[in-house]
Amino acid sequence: MEPKWLEWAKALLALSQNGLAYSQNHFDIDRYEAIREIASEIMASYAGVEKNVVLKIFEREAGYATPKVDVRGVVFQDNRILLVKEVADGGWTLPGGWADVNESPKESVVREIREESGYETKPTKLLAIYDRNKHSHVPAFPFHVYKLFILCDLIGGTSSTSVETSDVGFFGENELPNLSLSRVTPAQIRRLFEHHRSPDLPADFD
After folding, report:
1. What is d(CA 23, CA 21) in angstroms, rounded to the nearest whole number?
2. Structural domain of residue 15, as residue ranges?
3. How confident is the model at residue 101 (pLDDT cuts 50, 70, 90)?
4. Are both 73 and 138 inside the same structural domain?
5. 154 shares a domain with 114
6. H or E stretch including 151?
7. First-to-last C-alpha distance (Å) of the chain
8. Half-sphere exposure (Cβ direction) of 168: Cα atoms closer than 13 Å
9. Residue 75: strand, helix, or coil
10. CATH number for the domain including 186?
11. Which pLDDT score is estimated for 51?
């Protein structure tokens, strides 16, 4: 579970963002901006970064606060799962990333898999929707995130890397490399193999 200070900072951020989205009175706007600064100060203090850096990130968020959506493609070949190596931290993960505006989850995951691994895929089933806060992802993240794990059939393409990935490979359940724990956890990978062995399992959700 994430630390309480991060939970408090996120709650304050959402409160300020929602207030700024609907407030017309300049006194209320000032109060909500002050709450946003407090949230920034809490997060900066515990994360060891400058408050202004955090505040600038928060100031870009507008409208009613809702969770962000991360899509992850689950592709199996010969009982091995497709993983890509992240340039950012050197860990391996399922290909994926933020869902884009004007794309469905299926369209987003196909694009992410193609961009990060070179493979063409066809989405077939939603395997899981996980709340990032409820899983052992590290480090903590300043926004609330829902993670969608989507099973995809491999239909074409060839292995290739991108600006975000440095390697591509298929791995058996007992031969997993070091994972990018910010993006995927060993427990999640194990559960995806369970879905692979038992296709009739219903989708998981937190």
Report:
1. 6
2. 4-59
3. confident
4. yes
5. yes
6. strand 145-157
7. 13
8. 20
9. strand
10. 3.90.79.10
11. 86
